């Protein structure tokens, strides 16, 4: 069981690097979608006994993160007719390097935190922190609004992994609320993306520079 | 009852969506605002209000925040009616619905005893306020809304990570993980310290982003600069205080764990840094709405500073939350009136507002003296309380820096405000026909009256609210 969990987590980490190294927006969106589906599988595996609740959460997470949100983003991408990230603030090789450093730091930091007995040796905590940091890197170094939203999604995925260590602590209602907020948030961001494209004839957030000191 | 406080505004939101007439819908806002105020005042007279099996409790800190938020929302709702009437051609359906959803979520944040539920409510405020920010439909407001939405969402996501760290500190401490505040405080001494400390830092950064503490404040000047004045008021006087309340909840857990020192040090450093950043950017600030945003950064800094100093500083901080929230209402609403009357918000074009808008300009001037802590306004009292707490706690360096920054901010802000209100309107300033009327100045007059009252005499019930909130935070130390 825990081997399967670790294998999935390694796949999640590899997807982080894939996102950091690619310029094609469709590939970025597909990678985050795949991450979302993997998280759904992880959510089922993380529970020790099978019951209805984790299955529901896993289905909800996988369908929202793996299908609905990517569909919203792909639609936004089609509406505004762009395919590639151009000239990120830092290049792809440096961002891969930053991702590697962030993953290393996440492992070091996680090692300093005392883990509960059932998580000793598991990749859950370092993978969570590494994914959060990757999301942060994508958010801050990319110019296109859609890539920034994908970065936010990756960051959320990292937090979701952390939540897997605490399945008993988070009530059903709250978990549903978190997912719904994410969905509505992305929906509003999708509307904004459309408006930005209309106003500035570009999705380049580097053009959002009217408001400056 | 606690459920009704959240549910009633949500019903009003649905009603706002259902009403077809763009002209009649804004009248619903003051009606809903009054109903919420009546409900909150009624709840304040009750000794114990709770709901959802203990997930919602109106405890002493929540009572203070709710009272302030509801009064502000009521006055903003009156202002909103007149404001929306100025734009008859623009659909206000989403705006009205979002206003009600926003106040419902602020109420939920104040009442929530489950930290996960509180998180959901805070995230929802971001989503509910974004369409209100974008009401003006200009490229600049689009840019501000995008930054607000993205930075706010990331901050809130970090807060979720911090909440999970907190739950993990229970798991590691050998406890059943639970995010109920009561459980966490009761079990605080047994929480795993490294996880608790990491959790507090992440939560402080996350909710601090929402509160607008430097250096996580970057969304604030843009959002407040472009938002309609009443939305600025709701954010600066309502939402930021609710984010502060969230930080207080976690601070309470830290202090109950017997280890408040590091949390206090963090709050003192970030508090003073926020004031310093505000001081730097307020000097020669030409845009008077952005200036108000930096003023908000400053006062958020003062709030966490007071709690960081501890002792009487906590009482000062609670009183300051009340004073700052009310005074921010005066400033944002009067600045919005001036902005509209000149169709500009920089001191290059806006001069001599006392001639064109005597009441709004006088309110801005009075609000400036109030917010910078001049006697006899309430902020003098609360800032003085925090200062004397610093001195009596032998934090002389902190007290010195605090005083210095207050003086710097007074001069920086004064230069801009005086340019706006004094002199003659410049001949090439674009003139609009908008002038002061009842619904645009009445809320500001009531608010400045309240700030003045709090400086001269604090009525018994208000004093009890503030004292109980401070005691609840200090208890168990």
Characterization of this structure:
The complex is a heterodimer of chains A (213) and B (477). Chain A is an all-alpha fold and 213 residues long. Helix content of chain A is 75%, strand content 0%. In chain A, helix 1 packs antiparallel against helix 4, helix 1 runs parallel beside helix 5 and helix 3 packs parallel to helix 7. By secondary structure, chain B is an all-alpha fold. Chain B has one domain. Chain B has a two-stranded antiparallel sheet. Chain B is globular and about 70 Å long. The relative contact order of chain B is 0.10. The interface between A and B is large, with 42 and 47 residues.
Major sheet attributes of chain B: 2 strands, antiparallel
What's the β-strand tally of chain B?
2
Number of domains of chain A: 1
Rg measurement of chain A, Å = 17 Å
The averaged pLDDT of chain A comes out at 87
- Shape descriptor of chain B: globular
SS strand fraction of chain B: under 5%
Q: Which structural class fits the helix and strand makeup of chain B?
A: mainly alpha
Low-confidence stretches of chain B: none
Widest sheet, order of strands of chain B: 1-2
**Approximately how much beta-strand content do the residues of chain A carry?**
under 5%
Counting DSSP H or I runs of 4 or more residues, the number of helices of chain B is: 19
Order of helices and strands of chain A: HHHHHHH
Query: What assembly state would you assign to the polypeptide chains in this entry?
Result: heterodimer
